[in-house]
Specification:
Blueprint (H helix, E strand, L loop, with lengths): L1 E5 L3 H12 L3 E5 L15 E2 L6 H15 L1 H5 L10 E5 L2 H16 L5 E3 L1 H7 L10 E5 L3 E2 L2 H14 L3 E3 L4 E7 L2 E7 L2 E4 L2 E4 L5 H7 L7 E11 L10 E4 L4 E5 L5 E4 L20 H12 L10 E12 L6 E6 L2 E5 L9 H13 L15 H4 L10
Parallel strand pairs: 1-2, 1-12, 2-8, 4-14, 12-19
Antiparallel strand pairs: 3-7, 4-6, 5-6, 9-10, 10-11, 13-16, 13-17, 14-15, 15-16, 18-19
Helix pairs in contact: 1-6, 1-9, 2-9
The structure holds flavin-adenine dinucleotide.
The site of flavin-adenine dinucleotide (FAD) has 39 residues, from helix 1, strand 13 and strand 17.
Length: about 375
């Protein structure tokens, strides 16, 4: 069996790796360089604290891979497991937190519901006053996406995958309702299956196969800040869920600060969006963080920042399915595609080889959920 994977971000590379492990011949086509799409622009967060069972399952399957990445792939991705701390300001969010933790615990995740005061033990600079509840999971954390790209690329290559950077897919070939290959700048490539792992470009690739998928490229920014007060390395990735503000320690005493603070969220052209951080956004992001954490006082200094793309679906879940015979979609991960890549690669390989995936509940990620409107909606997004 020969599979063409479109996209050399973390999802395409993890898929290529899982496919070669399953004995498949793989050609991966990346029009730029590996990881240089959304993956390199990610905050690297890895957590199990999601609000829907399917996202928790994707995390549960992925976490052991992140924890043993060096053993498996020979690359230390710097996975720092200081947990994620989620904070609720409203009664509705606090009630939802209690339900989420109960669901996560049922699925085998040891997350805990904390009082805001207890949360200050995890994050000493936290002001507990604005909050009603918090949740924490010690095995959550963050890792380096670029190193993860290297690890997956190396392992996929060693397994025999043909990984081609600088090769753009121009068309998807369909015959009698079945995808049979792709057209590239270097000519056609026939395949038994084609995987659409093109991230924020995935809707464009789907349209080449005659399918319309609701995957919208949306701009998101992060800033690297020198905090006014030293931020301990053990501080969790902390999210104020009702404002969307988040921060975590970065290297050498700096902090990464992020969030999206306006209702305006237009689709952008993934080939022509502003890749630089906007200074007015950074000022707002710092203000929001300063509102609940003492690390971000007036003496904080902005060092640098960037913008990247979330690939957003209406319910903040990916589309993971065989969209038409021979055409597998793995895209639309919103802000959680980096962390879910290990489980996703496995699902993709099973969809290509067996026609069905073994992960419980993965059927909920088929695109027909948007017609029925009864799909799960992820609430824990930032
Ligand atoms: C600011 C920010 C913070 C984030 N933080 C987190 C986080 O903390 N945790 C987390 O899990 N996720 C996070 N994310 C989301 C995460 O980055 C993405 O979900 C993930 O990287 C998606 O990986 P991907 O492989 O699907 O996409 P990409 O990395 O974008 O890869 C898709 C690739 O397809 C290629 N491509 C497109 N068109 C073609 C074509 N025609 N032919 C060939 N190749 C093509 C592109 O060049 C690109 O390299 C964040 C994202 C942003 C922007």
């Amino acid at each position: 069996m020969h599979v063409v994977v479109i996209g050399g971000g973390i999802v395409g590379l993890s898929s290529a790796h899982a496919l070669v492990e399953a004995g498949v011949d793989v050609t991966l086509l990346e029009r730029g360089s590996f990881g240089a799409g959304s993956t390199a622009r990610s905050a690297g967060g890895i957590r199990a604290q999601f609000s829907t069972p399917i996202n928790v399952r994707l995390s549960r399957e992925s976490l052991p891979v992140w924890e043993s990445f060096e053993e498996r792939f020979g690359v230390d991705v710097g996975f720092r497991q200081h947990g994620y701390l989620l904070l609720a300001r409203t009664a509705a969010s606090a009630d939802a937190f209690a339900e989420h933790v109960a669901m996560q615990n049922r699925l085998g995740v040891d997350s805990e519901l904390l009082t805001p005061r207890a949360a200050t033990e995890r994050c000493p600079g936290l002001d507990p006053e604005p909050f009603r509840a918090a949740t924490y999971h010690a095995r959550d954390g963050y890792a380096d996406p670029n190193l993860a790209v290297q690890g997956y690329a190396r392992a996929a290559r060693e397994g025999g995958a043909d990984l081609r950077a600088g090769t753009a897919v121009r068309d998807v070939r369909v015959a009698d309702g079945r995808v049979t290959g792709v057209e590239t700048d270097d000519g056609p490539i026939a395949a038994d299956a084609v995987v659409n792992a093109a991230g924020a470009w995935a809707a464009g690739i789907a349209s080449l196969a005659g399918r319309s998928l609701p995957i919208a490229p949306r701009r998101r920014q992060v800033a690297i800040v020198e905090p006014s007060d030293g931020i301990p390395e053990t501080v969790p990735l902390t999210i104020d869920i009702d404002t969307g503000s988040y921060f975590r320690p970065e290297r050498e005493g700096t902090a990464l600060v992020g969030g999206h603070f306006t209702d305006e969220d237009p689709d952008v052209d993934p080939d022509a969006y502003g890749e630089s951080m906007a200074f007015d956004w950074a000022a707002t992001a710092l203000d929001r963080a300063a509102d609940y954490a003492s690390y971000f006082g007036e003496a904080s200094r902005l060092k640098r920042g960037w913008a990247g793309l979330y690939a957003v679906t209406p319910d903040h879940h990916p589309i993971l399915e065989e969209t038409l015979p021979g055409f597998v979609t793995a895209a639309g991960f919103s802000g959680h595609g980096f962390q879910h890549a290990p489980a996703t690669g496995q699902v993709v390989a099973e969809l290509c080889v067996d026609g069905a995936a073994s992960l419980d509940g993965v059927d909920a990620l088929a695109s027909d959920r948007f017609e029925s409107g009864d799909g799960p909606v992820e609430r824990n997004v930032a």
